[in-house]
Amino acid sequence: MALDRSAIVRTGLRVLDQVGLEALTLRKIASELGVQPPALYWHFKSKQDLIDEMASTLLADHAQPIPEDTAWEQFALTFGEGMRQMLLRYRDGAKMFAGTHLTDTSVYRHQDAALRLLTGAGFSLEDAGQVFWTVYTYTIGYVIEEQAVYPRPGERDERYDIDHRTERMAHENVPLAAAAGPALFTDFDRRYTRGLQAIITGVATWRT
């Protein structure tokens, strides 16, 4: 099979899921592909270049046409929820995504459609961009924290064990902080949706 950028990216995502972002290297990806590392540098100058392409590929895969009759609130909810599920598909998916430079300009078509829907719903272009950006960054930040607790679905980092956390706080006289543990580190699905709904409720006041 010919070695191309797409094959490298898909293998990179698979290796990311196995080892996490910090341990991800071009050498490990090359080994998975059965080639020498210099073969990858022909396509990508650095690990960051590859990560940018990996994130762009995920975003392009995630982008879906927006039906014309979609309510802006439903769009915001669907966009955020879908993006969260996309990031959760891979270990450190959100960390990998944060701060990347998009390499696939086709993703801007989805952004343009979203802005058109939002401005059509009464937002100024500036506020429409802020709505889009707020949902986007809230989702990335939330999933970074979520994946710190659950590096992989169903695999909880023992450092975030609720009972252990409560024991560590026992001598600090912080009963409310201790009691809040279950609310902070469990039921991530419900808490994400509540936060996203709070954003939607808040930005609704910006409409003209």
Q: Can you tell me about this structure?
A:
α7 (107-120) crosses α8 (125-149) and α8 (125-149) runs antiparallel to α12. The protein has 12 helices and no strands. It is mostly helical and 208 residues long. It is flat and about 55 Å long. Helix content is 66%, strand content 0%. The longest helix has 25 residues, at 125-149. It starts with a helix and ends in a 5-residue tail after the last helix.
Structural class: mainly alpha
> How far apart are the first and last residues' alpha carbons, in Å?
55 Å
Summarize the main sheet.
none
Got a strand count? 0
**H/I helix tally:** 12
As a percent range, the share of helical residues equals 55-70%
SSE sequence, one letter per element: HHHHHHHHHHHH
Q: Tell the overall outline.
A: flat
Rg calc: 20 Å
Mean pLDDT: 93
Low-confidence spans:
none
- Beta-strand fraction estimate: under 5%
